[in-house]
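Q: My labmate handed me this sequence with no annotations at all. I'd like to see what the chain might look like in three dimensions before we decide whether it's worth expressing. Could you predict it?
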Amino acid sequence: MTTEVLQAFDYAGKVWNSKKISADGVSVYDLFYSWFPINEQDKPKFESILLRSLHFGSLLDNIQDNTPSRNGKPTAHMVYGVPVTLNSGVVGLADILLDVASFNNQRFTQVFLEEFKDIYVGQGMQLQWNADKKCPSLEEVVDICSKKGACLSLGGRMLAALAGVKDDAKFIPILKKLNTAIQVANDIDGCADLRDIKEGQYNFVTVYTIQQEKIATGSSRLEKILLAPEQDAKMLNDARDLMIQYKAFEFANSYVDQLTLETIQLIKEIGGNVTAEQILQLKGIRQLITVW
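A: Here is what I predict for the chain of 292 residues:
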């Protein structure tokens, strides 16, 4: 019975993972483990908790944004319907929490709940911007990116707890920069394929474009497109052209690269970690996230 109830949750995971591949297999887990080595027998459960947390987030995000497809496949709620998909997501989340509790590590549980909450505080704030049709500042977007991208601080801090680190404060600024970098990279992808334009998203790329438009012309064609009840092909083409014209993709990509460099510098400042530094230098944050 439980297996049947989890069908939509499991399907959401398959959609999310359908293109998560890498030639050399180096992943964000390698970055985590270079900081916080844990027992080999604990790794599969830890990785499962983190991965299923991302699947839950994808499932919920797709419902909230009414996203029809991801990675070329229909999203879970389009296949199973919203009520069944939501219920399946809650059951999946309960299973995640049971696995978290099974470690019998109070710090591990506390960190999971703190970071998980942060993700959805960030998501809620972005949803409110979209609902209010109010364009935020770029600084506000960066703050939300550090929360919405919290899968990295979630994973890093959970591992620190499992590794017996009682105070992870010195690692948090590093993880928050990585959170921001991966969310901005996600915003780039969402605008490049126009998914976030169709969903009317205020994100790093769209807000930067809107700001630059208003500086140049006093108004924003892109914002009008985002707020339009329906968007035709011309509007979507105009949106792409505007983001290119105002070099929003270039700016966002350079911002991600700069965050990666700042992260490497912060790692050096807390004593250094050769493996972590090499992974970030060679792979960059985008490629690290291609394998979970």
